[in-house]
Design a protein that fits this description.
By secondary structure, the chain is α/β, with parallel strands linked by helices. It is built from 16 helices and 17 strands.
Length: about 550
């Protein structure tokens, strides 16, 4: 016979059960709280859609990802899909339907959703269909995870890789351009220099003068193209001085280049918006003048018919990095902008506009494909940045140049033409190209110097051991054998104060700068003109 528990025993068991239930509830509460904190920290939320009843559960964490509280968005599937980015909505629904139809085992998709503040958040949705005995989907359950930071990191990495690839491509093209420019400089030397020599003794009324001048002018135009090639070869490295971009713009507005451009594009209106309080930059006038000329020319050609080209300047302090075509670091800048209201640049072209020889123009008629490549390399050489914005309403090039606090010098360093000629000083010309030796010696002879020629650095060193010279005109690149810097280094061991001028078809290099540090004077580029070589030699001899 079973003995019934007493009232006291029942009461004790009830209390034990209540205590156990409290422990279970506390454990469950802690577990739920941990899960909530974990999913909140991970920016992940759960959703559950009962397809037959239409009931839809949406974790408050998911709503919080979009900046909403739990009660701001109802648990309704039709309402929730309105927060999917319009451009992604169809693809999201198709992916979900494929899972429901059994075409895919899981519902995995990345898409954008609209945040409360108007921004977009990237969501990784993972779901799975629950099926009944007949295989029909009755529920779709899953999670939403905020992957915005990951997507932003991937995008930043992609942009960095693209910029690095673009820089590497520019560098490779620059090396090619530099080699071509060096060979062309040697070829052009005779075309530019011999007309000068002929014109010195040719009567002013000679019928041949205009033909010789035309040859010289053609040669100088070719030299300008070669200089562009050298600039593209990242060989800008010219002497910089404090200057004001407003003055450079005003000079350009009075230039023959602009007059010619206005004749070619009479419907283009060139306007300016210049900051009267513009700060100075440290730059090369010649190269920056080329920049504004190229940008304005491109802008004018971009106009369909009537339109405006606006050149503007302004000061700007960048207090945090700016992400653009180039990322602009913090600092003080002068911004030099050229904009047009043409049809804009296509996105596929925008990524390539600074590549050498990439052009949409008719090659040989309206451009060489070097214009924007020159702009890019000049800006890089000036430690600046470029940002480009373009749409159907026009294009704007913003060039950022670091500010300098140095004042502009008004000292005129030019030497009158009448002072070019020498007084019989002996000048040793060192060059491995016979044609270059002949040209340089004829120029120096015409300027009343006594030129002596050798074809290698080794010959130069041996010559000066027995024959002191007043100055050496020294080629930098000589093959085979020692280069110009090595030659000069050996010569100053024999004559410590030997004067020298560096000449090269390449742009200024570390070897050139090292030779100058050892005591060599000016660096001049081939092809040389009588004026350029006369001024350089005279200045060096008078030091």
């Amino acid at each position: 016979m079973a003995i019934k528990p007493s009232y006291e025993e029942l009461e004790l068991r009830i209390k034990e059960l209540e205590s156990h239930l409290e422990q279970v509830e506390e454990t469950l509460r802690v577990s739920v709280e941990r899960n909530r904190l974990a999913t909140s920290a991970a920016k992940v939320g759960v959703w559950d859609w009962d397809i037959k009843t239409g009931d839809f559960y949406l974790d408050p964490n998911i709503k919080a990802i979009l900046g909403y509280t739990d009660d701001e968005i109802p648990n309704d599937i039709e309402t929730w899909v309105t927060y999917v980015h319009p451009e992604d909505s169809q693809a999201v629904m198709e992916a979900a339907q494929a899972c429901l139809d059994g075409k895919t085992p899981e519902y995995i998709f990345e898409h954008r959703m609209l945040h409360k503040d108007g921004s977009n958040r990237w969501i990784m949705v993972r779901g799975k269909a629950i099926r009944d005995e007949s295989g029909d989907a009755v529920r779709l359950i899953g999670t939403d995870a905020d992957i915005t930071e990951r997507k932003q990191t991937e995008e930043a990495l992609r942009e960095s890789e693209e910029k690095l690839a673009r820089l590497n491509k520019m560098e490779s093209m620059g090396i090619l351009a530099g080699g071509v420019a060096h060979d062309l400089n040697n070829i052009l030397s005779g075309i530019v220099t011999y007309p000068d020599l002929l014109l010195i003794n040719l009567p002013t009324d000679s019928e041949h003068r205009k033909h010789i001048e035309a040859i010289r002018e053609s040669g100088l135009r070719a030299v300008a193209v070669v200089r562009d090639l050298l600039t593209v070869a990242r060989g800008v490295a010219s002497t910089k001085e404090p200057l004001n971009l407003n003055e450079l713009v005003k000079e350009y507005l009075r230039s023959p280049e602009l007059c010619k451009l206005e004749q070619l594009h009479p419907t283009a209106a060139i306007k300016t918006r210049l900051d009267n309080e513009l700060l100075n930059i440290s730059g090369s006038k010649a190269h920056l003048r080329k920049v504004v000329m190229n940008l304005v020319s491109n802008a004018a050609e971009a106009l369909d018919a009537h339109g405006n080209v606006i050149i503007s300047t302004m000061n700007r302090y960048v207090d945090k990095p700016i992400k653009g075509y180039s990322d602009v670091n913090e600092g003080e800048y002068v911004i030099w902008s050229v904009s047009d209201d043409g049809p804009g640049i296509l996105p596929d072209d925008l990524d390539r506009i600074f590549e050498p020889f990439y052009t949409k123009k008719i090659m040989g008629r309206s451009g060489t494909g070097l214009g924007l490549a020159v702009v890019w390399n000049v800006v890089q050489d000036h430690k600046g940045y470029i940002d480009v914005k373009s749409d159907e309403n026009g294009t704007t090039f913003d060039l950022y140049f670091p500010v300098t606090r140095e004042e502009i010098s008004d000292k005129d360093l030019s030497i009158p033409i009448k002072d070019y000629k020498g007084n019989g000083e002996t000048i040793l010309v060192v060059d491995d190209v016979p044609g270059q030796l002949e040209i340089a010696c004829e120029v120096l002879d015409a300027l009343d110097y006594k030129p002596k020629a050798v074809s290698s650095g080794e010959e130069a060193v041996e010559y000066v051991k027995e024959n002191p010279v007043d100055l050496i005109l020294l080629d930098m690149i000589m093959e085979p054998g020692i280069n110009g810097r090595e030659t000069y280094e050996q010569i100053i061991k024999i004559h410590p104060n030997q004067k020298a001028i560096i000449v090269s078809g390449f742009a200024e290099t570390d070897e050139v700068r090292e030779a100058q540090r050892l005591g060599a004077g000016q660096f001049i580029k081939k092809p040389v003109t009588i004026e350029r070589i006369g001024l350089a030699v005279k200045e060096e001899l008078e030091k």
